[in-house]
Amino acid sequence: MGIVGEALEGLKRSPQWFTQSAAARDKHLWTFGAWDGLRYSDNSRALFEYTLANCPEIRAVWMTKSPKVYERLNSKGLPVELCYSESGKAVQRKAGYFFLTKGPDDGDPLQMRGCHLIWLWHGMPLKQIGRDSMAFLRRNTLWKRVKTAIRKQIVPWQFLSGETLSSAPFFTPFLQSAFGLPADMVWEVGYPRNDHFFKTDVTERIISDLHGRFDRRDATGKAELVKLLLYMPTHRDKATREGHAFNPFQQAGFDLARLEEVLEEKNIVLLYKGHFFDSANQGLQSASRIITVTDDDYDDIYTFIKDVDILLTDYSSIYFDFLLCRKPIILFPFDMEDYVAYSRPFYFDYSLMEGKRVFSWQELAEALGNDDYYVPSEQTIRLMNTYLDNNACRRVVEKVRQQISGN
């Protein structure tokens, strides 16, 4: 849509925006949403459930655009509204706070004038995000800067901002730059979703099923538990621009026969969980020890992740989360030069990402065959995570309560 078309669309929608009163907001009515309103997940979900269980003075409501999510939560008796329903719009126009994971489109931004946004966000940044990534991807010309300034007047609901979360002082300057925030608007409290890593009394069914299927006994009769290797690559902006999903099984010298030989020998199962933006890639359906994991395979992904044994990733923020598990990490940056050139530059030197490095599927097979992988050091864990506990939700709620009380 060109700027003229956007202006016409903005004029059509603007009455919904400008007729709202900030004074009418209820600071004890909190709304939550995630991933363009299509999923019940991530930091927003973790904080929503904590608020329901621990904050009796707060009315918490989940906002969704998905009838499937609506039915799921409604059947459990959880407070939920469809974003574009009349009752959903009414809740959003009254709410004092909206907690989002990806952006204002996690709800209906047209109803958020005067609402206080808390950007829980969805990952600590290695790669550039927010304004920084847009400057890179769009090659920030004078005309594009002028056009952005015009758009802020025409469609102000597309430029909402608020506090965001950081897991450690190490990341705070990057988040300030990405979102244009002063230091006091970056809350170094940790991620709500990571509280799940410390819940030892809950196990996802997929974990139990995998152990039931692949646990075995060695030649002496001793029990040999399967090792679960979770591969979570980040998406590639280049692939998205070219109109296809990123597929790592077609790159880096992939050799299915050799990899499965090692997986069988070491009793490892490789679980492939692609990025949200690459859901069109269904992995390898015919491989016996390479299993694609989808959102339908678990209730909460972080409850699932805590019980895998090894993480395999590249430039994904899951690295920083998984450090809290104190388990081995293998880094697989086989296309780093291409990624930096055509997807995103990094905020810091990749050498700070501690873990076993492999650059091809053959090297991965060798590392697995030789048990050549390790847990990152305590120094790295603490550099990237100030808090090593399950109290991130509590800390976020305390910060908001301080705002409400004016302290």
Helix coverage percent: 25-40%
Compute the separation of the termini in Å.
44 Å
How many domains in all?
Answer: 2
Name of the CATH class of the largest domain: Alpha Beta
Instruction: Please identify, by name, the CATH architecture of the largest domain.
Output: 3-Layer(aba) Sandwich
Q: Give the full name of the CATH homologous superfamily of the largest domain.
A: CDP-glycerol glycerophosphotransferase, N-terminal domain
Number of helices: 16
Task: Work out the number of β strands.
Answer: 15
Question: Strand fraction band?
Answer: 5-15%
CATH topology of the largest domain: Rossmann fold
Low-confidence stretches: none
**Shape, per Cα inertia axes:** globular
- Whole-number radius of gyration? 22 Å
* Main beta sheet strand tally, sense and closure: 7 strands, parallel
Strand line-up in the sheet with most strands: 3-2-1-4-5-6-7
Q: Please identify the structural class as seen in this structure.
A: alpha/beta
The average pLDDT score comes to 90
Give a structural overview.
The structure is a single chain. It is globular and about 70 Å long. The chain is of the alpha/beta class. It has helices at residues 3-18, 42-54, 67-75, 86-94, 130-137, 142-154, 172-179, 205-214, 237-241, 256-265, 301-305, 318-322, 336-342, 361-369, 378-384, 392-405; strands at 26-32, 59-64, 80-82, 95-100, 116-119, 162-166, 186-188, 216-217, 223-224, 227-232, 268-272, 290-292, 310-313, 329-331, 356-357. Strand 1, helix 2 (42-54) and strand 2 (59-64) form a beta-alpha-beta unit. The chain has 16 helices and 15 strands. It folds into two domains: 3-195 and 390-405, Rossmann fold (3-Layer(aba) Sandwich), CATH 3.40.50.11820; 200-384, CDP-glycerol glycerophosphotransferase, C-terminal domain (Rossmann fold, 3-Layer(aba) Sandwich). It starts with a helix and ends with a helix.
